[in-house]
Amino acid sequence: MKKQYKTLILVQVLILVFLTILYLFIKSKYIYSIPKCVFKEKLGIFCVSCNGTTFAIEIANLNFKKAFQTHPIFFMSLIYLALMNFIYIVNVIFNKQINIFKWWHAIVWLILLLIYTIIRNLN
Q1: Residue-wise pLDDT tens for the chain (123 aa)?
Q2: Do residues 98 and 90 lie in contact, with contact meaning Cβ atoms separated by under 8 Å?
Q3: Segments making up each domain of the chain, as ranges
Q4: Are 88 and 11 in contact (CB under 8 A)?
Q5: Can you spell out the DSSP letters for 39-86?
Q6: Distance CA 98, CA 111 (A)
Q7: Which of 18, 44, 70, 108 is buried deepest, with most CB atoms within 10 A?
């Protein structure tokens, strides 16, 4: 078996194991033992990842509309990561070199996250 295929299988298995553990944690009673956000509790403002737990719960319940309403930037990030994973699989299987990730994607994501956080705190 080619080294590329072994790497592909390993990456996909690791993703599935991570998602399974995350799903089991979200469905357990321990999800509600996560401490409250310090920024929200002490300063009264939303931090960058506020509503992240609610977002994860909604994704685990396959309620995509509510998940998008909870945190749209996280939702778009999941779509982007799924697309990156799909491109990776296509690259390995068909021996292509499609590269959609550019360094500026991370910068745009951070800027959008910052703008979203500022707008959310203005309301």
Answers
A1: 578 788 888 889 999 999 899 889 888 888 778 888 888 889 889 888 888 888 988 998 899 999 999 999 999 999 988 998 898 888 888 888 878 778 898 899 999 999 999 999 997
A2: yes
A3: 3-122
A4: yes
A5: IIIII-S--TTTTHHHHHHHHHTT-HHHHHHH-HHHHHHHHHHHHHHH
A6: 26
A7: 70
